[in-house]
């Protein structure tokens, strides 16, 4: 296993601004982890640090499995606006499997399984870039599903989708959870955090202000900032 993931005094700065501030955190196997916070809290940057797309400007981010190549192969990330390749939906999944060095004989089976899991079998031969926003997001999840990741990072996966498409994406996320994949999801959607989260890490101005089981967080927030966020109060008022 590549988990746990540890951040040791990890910071990230850009343009003279500290976005993540000396953050120490451990993410282990088990319950779904929701990183909750207002827009601009640093959620997306934190997700990219954990996934390895960004290197901390100070401190350290490390996996239990020190083999960097293996740890990268055992995780996947889905973004708010996924990038679709100029090819069919099925070919998008096959490309992801090829890039992950999955054996050629396995790719077809795993691609078809992944498309079936997200409900895109009937659209497998359609160009990915003509799919709707919700369908493209499901295809991004299919690419992740085909890799059988130990950890799946989700960065605001439904932020630009309508309620129907959001429900479809949440159903797929629950299927990942049921399969044993560790879910780490960033969102500012309180309802989604309640529906999908087991624990909440509340991020405010690049700092973790609290970490608690989801029910405890919403019923008895430990910080003034989290209480205000739950009430919908603007952080700069």
Order of strands side by side in the largest beta sheet?
5-6-7-3-8-9
Number of strands: 9
- By DSSP (H or I, 4+ residues per run), the number of helices equals 9
**What gyration radius follows from the Cα positions, in whole Å?**
18 Å
Query: Based on helices, strands and strand pairing, what is the structural class?
Result: alpha/beta
Largest sheet: 6 strands, mixed
Provide the succession of SSEs: EEEHEHEHHHEHEHEEHH
Shape: globular
Terminal Cα span:
44 Å
Strand portion: 15-25%
Average of the residue pLDDT scores: 94
Task: Give me the secondary-structure topology.
Blueprint: E1 5-14, E2 17-27, E3 33-36, H1 43-51, E4 58-63, H2 68-73, E5 75-78, H3 89-99, H4 104-117, H5 133-146, E6 151-155, H6 163-179, E7 182-187, H7 190-196, E8 199-204, E9 207-213, H8 214-219, H9 224-231
Parallel strand pairs: 3-7, 3-8, 5-6, 6-7
Antiparallel strand pairs: 1-2, 1-4, 8-9
Task: Describe the fold and architecture.
- Strands 5-6-7-3-8-9 form a six-stranded mixed beta sheet, with helices on both faces. It has a three-stranded antiparallel beta sheet with strand order 2-1-4, covered by helices on one side.
- Helices cover 39% and strands 25% of the residues.
- It has helices at residues 43-51, 68-73, 89-99, 104-117, 133-146, 163-179, 190-196, 214-219, 224-231, and strands spanning 5-14, 17-27, 33-36, 58-63, 75-78, 151-155, 182-187, 199-204, 207-213.
- By secondary structure, it is of the alpha/beta class.
- Helix 4 (104-117) crosses helix 5.
- Strand 6, helix 6 (163-179) and strand 7 form a beta-alpha-beta unit.
């Amino acid at each position: 296993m590549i988990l746990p993931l540890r951040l040791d005094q990890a910071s990230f700065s850009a343009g003279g601004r500290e976005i993540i501030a000396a953050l120490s955190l451990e993410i282990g196997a088990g319950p779904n982890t929701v990183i909750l916070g207002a827009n601009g809290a640093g959620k997306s940057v934190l997700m990219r640090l954990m996934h390895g797309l960004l290197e901390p400007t100070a401190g350290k981010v490390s996996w239990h499995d020190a083999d960097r190549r293996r740890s990268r192969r055992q995780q996947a990330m889905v973004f708010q606006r996924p990038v679709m390749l100029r090819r069919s939906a099925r070919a998008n999944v096959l490309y992801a499997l090829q890039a992950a060095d999955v054996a050629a004989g396995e790719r077809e089976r795993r691609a078809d399984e992944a498309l079936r899991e997200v409900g895109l079998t009937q659209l497998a031969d359609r160009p990915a870039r003509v799919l709707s926003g919700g369908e493209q997001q499901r295809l991004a999840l299919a690419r992740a599903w085909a890799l059988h990741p130990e950890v799946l990072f989700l960065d605001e996966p439904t932020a630009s989708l309508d309620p129907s498409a959001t429900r479809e994406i949440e159903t797929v996320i629950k299927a990942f959870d049921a399969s044993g994949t560790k879910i780490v999801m960033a969102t500012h959607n309180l309802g989604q955090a309640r529906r999908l989260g087991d624990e909440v890490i509340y991020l405010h101005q690049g700092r973790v202000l609290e970490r608690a089981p989801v029910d405890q967080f919403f019923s008895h927030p430990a910080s003034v900032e989290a209480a205000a966020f739950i009430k919908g109060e603007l952080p700069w008022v």
